[in-house]
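TASK: fixed-backbone design
INPUT:
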């Protein structure tokens, strides 16, 4: 079967793969929509039970958006440090601009456009495109890896005694058969085990990230030296800052719930952080879904509707509204930074001084570290991305 697939024309294979991605995305959206409709109609409360006061809701949506924007500050900081460590002298404003503009690329299947946009914008600001590609993968792996660790470590908070009985039967059966339910009933066991595992695995994680980066760019920014590995101490420090990032995303989700009138106590912030982390990481892993659309909302509504004080209808509305708040925050930040922060392209200045206006510049005329085009980066991104 695999040999037959390999004999197919590459363009046809690409078309088949794209059809599969979009088909899976449509199936997920259909299932989540049907599930949301079923949960909505199963709720005995009336629509007025949402207790929506629109000025109150707007205020908490703004709070949610601010918290969500702050949650990406550690990612910008880590990415900027990596870019500077690889020899590029790009200002922090331009790094922030490239980061948030590239953030919108995740809303296409495969999510490779994130790498392309950020790489091109760093390149236009005078940086090296190859180093931008490498560091994008460093940052993404560190951020989502920390989110996965948070999701595992905080699993016990999703299974208190009053919620365990409301877990779907198939999930409850799976947890019992694998004996995970017994472990989840032990407070802080998963948290302690995850912390120890992360500390032990840091050197290994550093080597793995370096290998992945080497596939994207076999040489460093200057010369033919290998891609510099991520220092273990630097990686550990970044994971600590990413804990703040996931906490802020939990606060963002909590603010939406408060705005909708749910009984969402701030003392349960660990719970909201856990739910936010699981849904975000799950959406990220669903490479067929643009921006994790459908997958993230499905996880959110399943987890939120099981929590006391939330209920089915508030959980459904919160899942959709959280997506809208986060999307509007991303679009607003990208639009403002793209409009207000304008790069002074060193490459453009060099090209105009080195060549007459009527002479074309070919890729072979540029230095090796600058002769990098969008198709090249797209190929590298797709080669090492999960898709």
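OUTPUT:
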């Amino acid at each position: 079967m695999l040999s037959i697939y390999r004999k197919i024309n590459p363009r046809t294979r690409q078309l088949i793969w794209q059809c599969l991605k979009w088909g899976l995305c449509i199936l997920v959206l259909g299932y989540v929509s049907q599930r949301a409709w079923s949960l909505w109609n199963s709720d005995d409360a009336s629509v007025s039970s949402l207790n929506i006061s629109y000025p109150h809701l707007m205020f908490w949506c703004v709070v949610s958006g601010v918290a969500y924007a702050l949650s990406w500050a550690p990612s910008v900081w880590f990415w900027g440090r990596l870019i500077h460590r690889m020899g590029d002298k790009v200002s922090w404003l331009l790094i922030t601009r490239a980061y948030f503009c590239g953030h919108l690329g995740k809303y296409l299947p495969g999510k490779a456009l994130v790498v392309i946009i950020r790489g091109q914008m760093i390149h236009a600001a005078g940086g090296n495109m190859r180093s931008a590609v490498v560091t994008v993968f460093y940052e993404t792996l560190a951020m989502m890896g920390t989110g996965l660790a948070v999701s595992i470590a905080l699993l016990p908070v999703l299974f208190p005694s009053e919620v365990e009985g409301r877990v779907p039967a198939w999930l409850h059966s799976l947890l019992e058969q694998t004996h995970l339910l017994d472990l989840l009933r032990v407070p802080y066991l998963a948290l302690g085990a995850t912390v120890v595992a992360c500390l032990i695995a840091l050197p290994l994680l550093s080597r793995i990230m370096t290998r992945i980066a080497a596939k994207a760019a076999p040489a460093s920014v200057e010369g033919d030296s290998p891609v510099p590995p991520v220092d273990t101490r630097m990686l550990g420090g970044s994971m600590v800052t990413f804990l703040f990032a996931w906490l802020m995303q939990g606060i963002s989700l909590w603010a939406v719930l408060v705005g909708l009138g749910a009984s969402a106590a701030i003392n349960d912030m660990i719970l909201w952080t856990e739910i936010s982390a699981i849904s975000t990481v799950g959406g990220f892993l669903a490479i067929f879904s643009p921006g994790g659309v459908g997958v993230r909302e499905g996880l959110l509504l399943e987890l939120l509707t099981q929590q006391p004080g939330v209920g089915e209808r508030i959980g459904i509305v919160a899942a959709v509204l959280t997506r809208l708040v986060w999307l509007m925050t991303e679009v607003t930040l990208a639009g403002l930074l793209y409009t207000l922060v304008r790069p002074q392209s060193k490459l453009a200045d060099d090209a105009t001084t080195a060549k007459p206006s009527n002479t074309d510049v070919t890729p072979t005329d540029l230095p090796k570290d600058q002769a990098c085009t969008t198709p090249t980066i797209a190929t590298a991104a797709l080669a090492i991305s999960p898709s």
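COMMENT: Residues 50-342+367-384 form one domain.
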